[in-house]
Structures
1.
Amino acid sequence: MYKVYTHIVSIAGDVITVEAEGIGYSEIAHVATRRGTSLAQVIRIDGKKVSLEVFAGSKGVSTGDRVRFLGHAMRIASGDNLLGRIFNGSGSPLDKGPELWDNPVEIAGPPVNPAKRIIPAKMIRTGIPMIDVFNSLVESQKLPIFSIAGEPYNELLARIAIQAEVDIIILGGMGLKHDDYLLFRNTLEEYGAISRSIFFIHTASDPIVECLLVPDIGLAVAEQFALRGKRVLVLLSDMTNFCDALKEVSITMEQVPSNRGYPGDLYSQMAVRYEKAVDFEGAGSITILAVTTMPGDDVTHPVPDNTGYITEGQFYLKGGSIEPFGSLSRLRQQVNGKTRDDHRTIMNTMIQLFASYRETREKLAMGFQMSAWDKKLLHYGKIFEDKIMSLKVNIPLEKALDLGWQILAESFLPEETGIKKSMVEKYWAKSSR
Amino acid sequence: MPDKMAPKRKGRIIKISGNMVSASFAPFAVQNEVAYILHGDERLKAEVIRIRGNSAEMQVFENTSGLKVGEEVEFSEELLSVELGPGLLGQIFDGLQNPLPLLAEKCGYFLKRGVYLKALSDEKEWDFTPLVKTGDKLRPGERVGFVPEKILRHYIMAPFGLRGIQEVINIAGGGRYNLRHPVARLRDEEGREAEVFLAQAWPVKIPISTYLEKLMPSQPLVTKMRLIDSLFPVARGGTYCIPGPFGSGKTVLQQLTSRHAEADVVIIAACGERAGEVVETLKTFPDLIDPRTHKPLMERTVIICNTSSMPVAARESSVYTAVTIAEYYRQMGLNVLLLADSTSRWAQAMREMSGRLEEIPGEEAFPAYLESRIASFYERAGVVRLYDGSMGSVTIGGAVSPAGGNFEEPVTQATLKVVGAFHGLSRERSDARRYPAIDPLISWSKYRSFIDEKEEERGHEALRKANEVVQMMKVVGEEGTSLADYVDYLKGEFFDFVYLQQDAFDPVDEATSAERQAYVFNFIYNILNAAFFFAHKEEALRFFQQLRQLFRGWNSSPWQSAEFARTEEEIRGLLQTKSVSKKERANV
């Protein structure tokens, strides 16, 4: 039925060029090689010359191999049958389940009309005080975890996934180590969350082009669930690998690089994906949590820098815990006024005091003498780190706020905290009782 | 006007690469003309941006997925234009002036490609009052009548594109007309006739220039942000830029300005930024009341929104669409403020197109024409004297998002060359929660403030001196600093805390009128110049802390209220306790 072309005129990088007619831009094709069949996508048409990016890589592709165009753009199955399943970056099963073709949707669909968005207003509780109390996560937020290699960012992501109040979890793994993939699978299995999860996994050894497809596939599936009223949490790890794949492909395509080899459209490429986070008026929502590893812990590196301009804040994971400074949820003001009346007070006071504690620590390190106030701060900082900052802590927001009052009462006199009198009367006495 | 009888020029696609499509043409093609790609029953809008041999290279304003070589292209001969007329206020458009709420009604959640709607409703009727009579002579851009539009009188002007003196040969009487009904007929000296409608089209990349002269911006544009108005003022018809790293509060600053600035019309160009931020403006402005007009803020606002996930080519045109609408309202003798967030995304859109055109790249792969494009955009700001002697202005404020927060990058540098004021945001200030995070040590303005010049200079000096002492203290410690220096440091910090910083969440403090600013600045000027007697540093610190606390209360008490007067007395009382009078000083 479909025409088969057998004349591959050039192979460069993962891009092959065939002579063909009547082919649509972004169309998908099957490339049959001696290693098996791979999908490929049209990325340039010049007269009769059609260039395709081969998802499985061009290794072993021969000039005589067969290319069959499918007449449509990349599609992925969607719907409930995907739940509990694991796929690779082209949407083929990695588990022992069958191939799926239900409700196919085109990936990288059109953007949402801004007039159809609503102001996000629903908090997602995670049980992690550093998030719930200090930088609340909000439904439809897009938030990266800025971190460096070696930090437990995937553990954090997995924990948020099992504890967050959402309907569906979609994991997009890009350049994931096999161990990390197993970590996600085992954690979600252990907590019984696997049946509401879908995995799209590209591991470090898989073809680079598939890495680029992972966010698009995951988000296209997520969008279908959200339109049906589901609250979807999309986890992407690690977006820096995605950007590096983008760099690799664009340089092979002889595009002019802009900054440290990354293509000039890095910002737009990331924004198109992150902007899929949405709260639909009258339907569900998509929340995106991504990992961005910062090469050399450098926040001005193009990947974290562009990410920061796109996302609504960031969690900064350093030394095994979420840093209160450098972490920011831009949407927290939308929700933390509606939880409990002391939420903002605790948030601001505890952080200000913790900032003073850090200054005292510096003074201590420089050998200055410690005043009585300094000693109080040191005492406070230590408890804060152990009972609030540690990622081991797992308590609901209200308990965390109570704990906050308790820690303050243990460390300071009410007037030393600068908290409004009415608040002190309402909460201070209660917790020290 | 293109001849309607001429057959449509057509061509065929020969090459597709991303959103750049090349097409053959015959017999000719026009640079920057709009073309439509016919794909099935879809018509995709594109703009010709380069012509080579017999191929026209076009940037397509839509996703190009599915397009095929050989598909038909229709050339329109019209440059990319916007529709100007009553009904723009309160609207929200995409970069090509499609009304987004209407698109949502028609297409649902997603932006469907190839769907273009008329910017203004043809059907809606407006109450027209003529201002000219048959036989009157007028120039293009002069008023023929007006209709009421929301908060203002919307003048209907003779088409900007006409040439020479026009004679009115027919004018409609007062009454209700829709946009398709001609309200006047004009004849030029060569006998050519043209009809005047309530709305007219104008190409976005060409400035509207039907005015007498462009003047020097001299009147301050009050933003009600103390740090800006008092120290780094913006003039009506002037330009300014706000560069800053992510998270330093550019967008919040722009949002506050869009709310409080004393302008008649505010155009917000959300260019390549987060959709969520536009949504906030969109959903809150209809309920926020403008204290000047007592009408919802939305009634003086036009939003042009091409967020980061919308097609890149339309992002490039969105700033032009915005500035053209700004110029249009300026022609009515109004003061218009255009806020563009962010011009870096616009520059990046140019970079993406330039890359696809395989042009030789300049610095950081930006095209070589980056600087001239930025300059000509900001040059569209200005105060103009119109033909009837009235004045109108367009003020442009552009946010810049420098890569890595480094102001040395090409977009920031090109912008700094052409603007009249620079409000540089710093990460240090925003980390220290000193909002607005405009760094007073690096920012500058070429415009005059309404604050007394001598007093303004004293303010700058206090900040510079305090910074010097801070640098010194880092080396010698607090104990190694003299009391006099320490007091200078406290004075600078005090000025920063109680005047430069403003609490955006406090209903009074978030906006300070010019009158109040002048009064309080003078008050602080006297404090900065006053001599105080302190026994030691601790006493000085305590004194300024007390002063600071009182001032905070003063800042959140309404102007000229009893509370305001009471707090002022309290502050004066506190000052008395430590100040050394001139006589005493002479005796020392």
2.
Amino acid sequence: MASYSRRILPCFWKTTKLLTFEDSARRVPCRYHQELLPTRNYLLPETVEEHRKSELSKHPELPPSITSENVPADFRFVYPEFLPDPQYDRRDSIRERLEREDMYRRRAVIDIPEFYVGSIMAVTVSDQYSPNKENRFVGICIDRGGVGLRAFFILRNVVDGQGIEIMYEMYNPTLQSIQVLKLEKRVDDKLYYLRDAPQEYSTFPFDMDPIPVPKGSTVPVNKMKVQLNPRPWLERWERQDLQGVEDLKLEQRFYDKAAKVAKPWEKYDLMKWYRENTNEEERDSIMQEVHQRKRLTDIEKSKRKTKLAERKR
Amino acid sequence: MLRFPYRARPRKMSRQRLPEEGIIVGQEGRLQRLRQLVTGLVRYERIETVYQHCDETRGYAERLIHTAIRNGDQHQHTMEMADYWLNEKDLIYKLFDVLVPRYQNYSSAFTNIYRTPIVYPGRGTEMGILELKGNPWPDVLPKQRDNRYVISNVLLQAARKDYNTSKESRKTKNELNSSSENSET
Amino acid sequence: MNFIKCLSTYATGTRSFSTTSCLHEIRKLARMRVVDNSALGKAARLSGKPARVIHVYNKTSVGTVGDKVLVAIKGQKKRAYIVGVKQNQKPNMPKFDTNNIVLIEDNGSPTGTRITVPVPSALRKKGEFSKILSLATRFV
């Protein structure tokens, strides 16, 4: 079969492209039209073989000694981007699996530490236009989201009296390093209200020293309350049930309207939650996989370190 | 994880007429109506309403039982949910003491749903029946009677067997005869 | 759409109105912050009447970082470069809290002698900004 198709398709038997009728009509001599017509949209056997032998299709065999029965309970908060997009019409299990493989591979190269909204982080990106070919930014993480390779976080800081926010993609290959300077959580999921707060709440020095967290300790929660500037604001903060904000000092009509548009029953809507989130069983299985892969990469890293140390001796 | 096909988007159940609250419109009214249906389902284990409402109720009831199985009665969020979804509070005990042990080892859905025939003449409303599995009521669908050992069937079976054996013996005889004729010629 | 709405407000005689929609687009009549140390920019800031865009020199008429605009400032028409925007940006591109401009003269040389706030590093890839970038003190 292989030799046959090689004979009739000398010019592109190696391509990974799907053959369309237009392609075949253009490139293949007339006498082969009839042969190609019925199989208009087919994949060449060589291409299939190539894909079969590629690195992507190889799944690393997990040694029997590593079994992760007890995944830490907070794992899904540390690695939320591994959970798939729960919108079922956008889901594709093969793509999700491939994306996760890519993420593991990226994580083997760059250290993406544990961080939360409210942590202070430093990110170095490669920048071809700066003289030292890199650009470092320090700021507080005000939001984190996205799924798979498109996971992102947003850093905010005030430099020379100018508020600046930069969105970084976690798995962007131009990122050189991600460092957590101060690991902590805030009481809110998103800190966009810092845009309407005085600048001192989001000012962090670029030469800040990392504050180490003792191993095994829980992540501290910063219960700081922010006093917002007077209106006008970018959003209607009084409607958002913010915990980390002081009394907003508004007229009563604002609170009345907020109470009118509030939807207190939404948290009881079990099916709404189910439709908008990954269900528990699937979440657990994915987190188990992440846990297993993390242990494997940790072992590999430690092996590499010991090898390096031996070489230095 | 729900073990039955569910709709991607919720149905709108607008204008619910409730005995205490009167007519309630919108999302809130929808949940009020569903609460009543879930409470009724847990109380009586079988309810009969509009098919679409049965289907909506099914998801909520199953999710409630599923959360109860997963988290137990010491979990605050689960207790809040049980408190909201069961209007009659004695049913919270039933949920944790009766339903959770019943469905703990199930690998299928916890409920059954049926369509009932449309009553004619009438408004043509599609009605349905929703029930918890393992309920004490008689089955909705009639059980097929096992009539293998009814006397007429036994006799027919025997007659069929006789006929087949005689047919086979005749066949073998014929074959033998033909083979002997062939050998003679 | 927002722009049309704002214009209609203008016609009815409302004095203070804003073209800043939720998209934070820099269109005509958008108010800008002058971030160089020119006397004109400082006077505009102190008087409470910031510079307003009266033309954007590109095809889409929505300005982004690096675009040239014509602004009305203290009764004068001045050209300026946008050096920071409020609009949501692509990954790795800074998003500023204000829309910043640097005033230039008609011959292309900057009016001020120093830029007081950080400037996006991506501006450096365009050659035409060398005069402005030489005034910048910090890049992000």
